Amino acid sequence: PSPCPQGLPASLRAEPVVRPEPVRVEPGALPPASAGHSSLVPGAAAFGGLCGGGGVGTWGELIAGGVVDRVYIEEEAERRKKEIDRQMDKQLADIENECQQQRNDIQRQAEYHTQMAEKQIETHKRQHQAHLQRQAEIQAYALLQRSEAEKGRLGHEAARALAQQSAREKAMIQHDAMRAAEDMWRQSQRALLEQAQKAKVDIEIEAKRRTEDIEQQVRDAVSRVYMSPHTAAPEGLTLPGPHAKS
Questions:
Q1: How many CA atoms lie within 13 A of 226 on its CB side?
Q2: Which terminus of the chain faces fewer neighbouring Cβ atoms within 10 Å, N or C?
Q3: pTM to 2 decimals?
């Protein structure tokens, strides 16, 4: 290419390109509109200055007047475009790496906080379970004490009721035995009385029969003995015929 005119900026000369510092851009944000490519491309402001008021003229005028070489300008622009693309790719890669690192850090922090929360929840859970178990043991002990007291009271009442029932049953048995003995005595007395009355009747009947037999024998004997009609019959003796008492 032709040598650059003295009035051209130094950024158009073939010196090594100095890589600018990458601009930090938040994820999802765009570079500032006022910066354009001047913050990424050295000498861009100088190119822009040529086209502004008070410069040597526009690029078209410079190319038409032979001040600059068109091929050189195009090659330099292509080279700078590639450099800008490389820098942009690098900047995007750095941003992506930083975002990935931040995401990994956030994920690690979230996992750490999740683990700590799980540990805290597990600790609270164990403490709550221990508290509930202690309360259950206290309530169970109180219930056991009340159950033992109630069991003792019921046992005492049951023993007293059994003793009373036993006393009543023994009294009933004794009463029944006494009534049975009394009934048996009465029955025996009645039987003895009946036997005595029967024996008395039998004795009276037997005595009457024997008396009648004796009287009959006496009458028979007297009938065979001659007695005067005017003779009174012996006392206690009934004679037939005229000797009979009227």
A1: 0
A2: C
A3: 0.33
